[in-house]
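In response to reviewer comment 3 from the previous cycle, which asked for concrete evidence that the modeling workflow produces usable outputs, we include below a single protein chain processed end to end. The sequence was submitted unchanged, and the resulting structure tokens are shown without manual editing.
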Amino acid sequence: MTKQLNIFLENRPGRLESVAEALAKAKINVMAFTIQDRGDFGLTKLLVNKPDEAHLLLADKGYACALKDILAVSIKDKPGNLHKLTQVLLKHNINIIDAHGFVQEPSREGICCLEVNLKDLKSAKAMLAKEGFKVLEEDELYEL
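The workflow returned the following structure tokens.
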């Protein structure tokens, strides 16, 4: 299953830089990230090419972090495709808890990273594949 690294960081200058420095020194590539403000603290979500290694590295350095299983769905970057994806999820009553995405150049492939309920994860993966969506395996995603 593909994984996303979630890190709880104090909301002050330098905290993200220290995470980025540790990952850079370990030659771990950050493919995508989001930051959510929570007042004095924030939640940083990273998509990295070596999630298990990144998690151990940051945990050893004292960061509060966790790995989350996600679905990484590849769709062509064109109008209406996000709607098609969300329609299929709705049809099967799959709730999106959290999501972010990015476009891979030059292929113009959109990568939608979706967190759904853990109990729905395997069935959602199978259902999306059956509906014609490409759900990326770990090695496919991390090698982009």
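Residues 15-25 form the longest helix (11 residues). We consider this sufficient to address the reviewer's concern, and the full set will be provided in the supplementary archive.
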